[in-house]
Amino acid sequence: MNPDAPVSVVVGTLATSGSVATLTGLYGAFKGLSQPGLLAGTAAFNSGVAGAVFFSVREYVVSPLLLSSITSEQYERRRREIEARHLEKETGKSVSPAREHLSWSEMRVHKLLDTTVSGAFTGGLLNAWKRGRGGILPGTVTGSIVCALLQVGYNELSVQRLKYVSRRLKQSQDASKNSPVLVAQETKVPSSLPDSDESDSEPKKTVADRIISLFGLSKVPDDQYLEKLRQERDAYVRRIHRLEAQIEEEKRSKPSAVS
């Protein structure tokens, strides 16, 4: 089992409950309902229960079963990552996985099967609890489709953000190569021109940034996000190398122990 499963369940449940409550509250306020806060609270509770069931089923039941039975490249890679994390917790040392380059298609199908199966089970269970046996099949179909679409959308957002960050990084690198020319041009500007206002140089917050800040969140700059991804990649690389070295050492020690 993934040692990060408890964190994934808690974070997923809170994210589901918070996002559904926010959307419901905004919808109630937009429609002019009398008690949008109560509506948002009810939606938060219901979605929190559904999210807790879904993420618990996925992290503790479905994913372990699929990891132990499917031999595709995606699940082989995930098994190596989980083994590296277990070894890191046991030894207290950083274990780096081997360097693996994921394609965009592999990133787009990440945990798609796990989410679809878990969504089908959760939808059937909750709909049966609400409507009886007759709600099992509709709930299963609806839950699998909705959860699969949400996972595809989440994966696609991750892919598009990585592409965007890569483009921005490339543009910044190209601009840095031309920086001496820009400096030479700036020295030719007459000193009589007035200095630009300092407030103009500060980036203005968009409406989305202001809404995010209301919930105590902040937008992560692209360069910091890219640096975080690089650090995670390097950490995985180190983990796999150490795991492979330990496996080789164990293989060498077994013949000597038998003799």
From TrEMBL:
Coiled coil as UniProt keyword: yes
Region (Disordered): 175-204
Coiled coil: 226-253
Keywords tagged on the record: Coiled coil, Membrane, Transmembrane, Transmembrane helix
TM segment ranges: 6-30
Protein name: Uncharacterized protein
Species of origin: Neolentinus lepideus HHB14362 ss-1
